[in-house]
Amino acid sequence: IKNGLIPYKDFNMIQMPLLPIINGLVLKLTIDNLLIMRICGALLSASIMFMIYKILKHINVSKNNITISLILIGLITQNVFYNDYNMATLLMVLLIIYNELKEKPNDILIGIFAGISLCLKQTSGVVIILSTLLINKNKNIKKRIFGISIPTMLIFFYILLNGALRDFIDYAIIGAKDFHNSISYFELFKFNYIGLLALLLPLVLIYSFTKI
Known about the structure:
globular; 212 residues
């Protein structure tokens, strides 16, 4: 993208184009160097940790427990923090959660974050949009839909104006259903901290659902 190529049209890509567009613009405005992408990844990772801190603080978790939580999260996830559309989607989810927790959520802003998540990754983005529209009964759906439409329409016009609509449909929509990149949950059960988390997660979810 930095060199003027159009996603889907000039090169193959299955995910939505927002993060590559942002990266391309950053490289164009700075220097074409891997270090720049490393810095972007560091900023993205730091933003995720900061939003986790803000959420925990908002729900009155003690400072000591916040510190311990952030250290543990950092240690566990240090090898998966990349300048990556999955990490960017996670940041959008955390921003949505933080705004949902406020006494008066900003529905347009929540919609924008949900729309951005779709522009980062279509599969999880659809789920995030449905969640923001269906879960909270105190929401203003029209405002949220308006917020969602802002980033999604901008991406649509980018694809349309660059003559890549047919290729986009072929790769990102039709191709997405044929894309398989998953492992069995049972493969996570190993004698390490990942195996421990794999065991604890369903137990925590069951406990949470019974409480809710």
